[in-house]
Fold:
Amino acid sequence: MFADNLLSLVIWLPILGGLAVLATGDDRRAPIARILTLVISLATFFASILLYTRFDIKTADMQFVELSPWIEAFNVNYSLGIDGISLLLIILTTFTTVLVVIAGWKVIQKQVAQYMAMFLIMEGLMIGVFSAMDALLFYVFWEAMLVPMYLIIGIWGGPKRVYAAIKFFLYTFIGSVLMLVSLIFLYFKAGQSFDIQTLYAVKLDLTEQIFIFLALFAAFAVKIPMWPVHTWLPDAHVQAPTGGSVVLAAIMLKLGAYGFLRFNIPITPDASHELAFFMIVLSLIAVVYIGLVALVQEDMKKLIAYSSISHMGFVTMGLFLFNPQGMEGAIIQMISHGFISGAMFICVGMMYDRMHSRLIKDYGGVVNTMPVFAAFLLLFGMANSGLPATSGFVGEFLVILGAFQVNHWYAAIAALTLIFGAAYTLWMYKRVIFGKVTNEKVKGLTDINARETMLLATLAIAVLAMGIWPFPFLEVLHVSVDNILSLASVSKL
Amino acid sequence: MNLIAVAILAPLSATLLIMLLRRFPATLALLGAAIGLVGSLELLANAYNGLSQEIILPGLPGMPLRLVATPLTALLSTLVAVVCTLVMVYAVGYMKKDREQVRFFATLLLFAAAMQTLVLAGDWILLLSAWELIGLSSYLLIGFWYRKPGVKSAAMRAFLVTRSADLGLYVAVFILITNAGSSDIASTLNTSGGPAIAAGLLLLIAAMGKSAQTPLHDWLQRAMAGPTPVSALLHSATLVAAGAILLIRTAPMLAPETLLVIGIVGGVTTVVTGLIALAESDLKRMLAASTSSQYGLMLIAVGAGVPMAALLHLIAHAAIKSSLFLGAGVFQHSRDSTMLDKLQGVGRNQPKIFFGFALAALALAGIPPLSGFFSKDAIIAATLSSDHIWILLPLALAGTLLTGGYMARALRILWLKNGTSQPVSGLAWMGTGLGGLVLLAVILGAAFPGLELLLESALNIRLTENTITRFIPEILGLSAALGGLLLGWFFPVQVLLGPILPWAKRGFVVAGGFDNLMVRPALAIAHGCEKLERLLYKGVLATGRLGLRLGKAARRNDESGIDGMIFSFVRGTVNLGGKARTLQNGLIHKELAISTIASAVILVFMFIVLLTY
Structure:
């Protein structure tokens, strides 16, 4: 019965499931809430795998299309559909949510049902963003998604959670308002339609395009985040609970890049070409400058947060190179960064749960008490520095190769990340993991338990599989990427 | 089953088995290495019969991954497999008392698999990947005894120095792929002109990092903090060979200008690190400096346009230097140290081992009929035929002289004087591995003519000259070698090096070396960026405060001016905020929420009004 509405199922199952979890109420029934959440998140994950198996890699058309009127007076439709790009991001979302639920299993002890419900609802809303084919529907999902994340940081976060939550909310909200303005402008230009594919065909002169591009940029660049509108991210990460950091880094940052792909590049192709240099320069600043900032961080979560910004620089650069290597590399980098940053935040979370500190100087010699954990962290650290045979290599390599074809200097500067990425990751690893035990607390650490091992092993498999055999990821992208590139190559002037 | 797959997958599966079972690490390691060796030998036999093999795997779009077994790659694969197997035999004895054999053998085999992939790679992406993975294994193995002081820094330094140089490989690969439109190594070798020069120089940088050439030689000496079998396998015979292998394989593409630079880099390295070796007071660090020096000689040969000579020396050096390291490992166990003054006379306690060590030392110096004589002779012959004979020949002879010097000095210290040693366990295993490698170091020279024939077509280079022209290099090389040996044996190093001795002991560090020239500035820049970042942060907060003030002002106006719709919307939000606050005290800052939402709504309406009319 769900065969025709698979996308709706993937969106609404977690949202309705989340409401059901919320209904289990207070913490006396926490075990029920946990199990219910796990079942729902697993079901959603398997449903998204069905999307993959039924996906036709040969067509550029949107698939699993659903269309029904929503607000008829304004010609707003409940219109869904995905291409290869959305497909991969949806699977990343459902995969990450399962892991987040398991990661928070024991750690979260207060308001369990609410915590779990927030993640499920957020999952559904994010999938909604990835599959909406109506601009207003996209906007609604986009804005609604902020609320659960705001609550997750604000309720379950660290000591300065309220400040961080408000900063997160304001930053992203202000950007979104400008996006709404440009969507409404486009609505009238397109003869009162919010249908995204209709918007692709709207004729726009260069000034209009540039204004629309910049308005959308305000929303998406904040989300990614691009330099210099990134200052909310380290705060949000440091204060967010582990699960919040994971979702934020693994999925939410990708929404901005997805926005560029779905809106900026096809709707304002000429402006995108005009402003490509600007975008690439901002990306390179993120790669180099933020990479250096990451080098001297004292707080592990901040370090990984800055490393995220630096890696997302590759994504934005890849998108605006306008060649297949660059764009496919950017998308692969999005997925890979989802795995790696998620894994890194989970690892830091595991140490934090034991030591209640995120400061590098409080650690040292962890390998003596947590050897298995140290091995996993090394793998993820190497993936973070883009070592071959891990997913981090594939995306970065393709993006730099794409960049080289456009301009040698872009590639040369971007390639500096090989050194910076390795330097900040390995230096942190050396100080935290190796050496003598100086802190008495480290002596009493216990290695990761079965649940934690399973969690990290799953991520390790994902990171290695994508690094060694990237084919299944790449093959669903080809046609969709070509489609976006061909839309971008047709001038609207 | 495909033999290429055997050569790579045998060690790899052994790694996985060791990690999963966590027992019998030594047995599984020997088995994995031996099966891999059989595969490699078969590949070589097939190559002799003119059979080439190839595996093509799907890789990145339009750039499939290739593994190829040509005569050259099959030969290198065999070399790696032989040294790997013998070192593995030795390691069984050497690691007998270590409690972490699982980690040791698993990592060592992982390295073996990566190294096989590197030599058999037929496309740039696979080569690059293997190149990075051997760097990773090296990091893990140098850091194996992570509890010892200085080890973790040595491991990180090795990884970061070589990775910085790897930047050259990355960019070179981008140039070659973009230029040829294919990632197949063979088809990129047709590159010519500007791109070929640029790519060649970049490849040289990568090779300088991996083969520890001046000024990037320092990491190799520090890498001696790792277990001795690791030094023997990675840091003399295989991993450091990757740099030279890279240049040998790309030799057909290298422009004359590039060749000259390669020759000079090699020449400078062979002299500088030769002097360091002469001044060194630690046996393993001396051998490490000597390794850099010998790879310098190989680069001279490549620079002279005869990669074949470099390849022969690479093969001979692999057997010789790993023998020397394995001998050093036995000495290390008998005296619990690698410092030369603690090892005085250790040869008398371990005469058999010392005999093997001495044979290898003479081979390295280039005494006939040992293998090193033939390969060094080929290098000197290469410089004679080069256009830059007056640059390359003196450097090559100086390198040879120094080799004799430091080897004689080491032999003298190890043999003269008496000392007491402790018994060494696992000596049978260690002796077997060492014996095999010394045997190769002695007899390999006999195989060289055959190898040259085999590779003639593969490398596409001129054959070695006839006997008359070969007579001159033999005389030159032998005099340099004997001269070096005599000087090293009869004169103390203080006399030989004179005033430059203290400088040589510090590794000819210029202006504080790597730390002062690279690391400190990089960290200073990073701290500068961090300051800028704080400033940006403050700026954002100030803008936020400004916005808040504007919002407040707007609210004062709006509350009296604008109609009920906004007002009720705001009130609704305030109520919601109040509810959320009961959930968590102080969750929403009331004024902030009101002012943001109010100003946002106004903004939206203004824009809509402006755009639609």
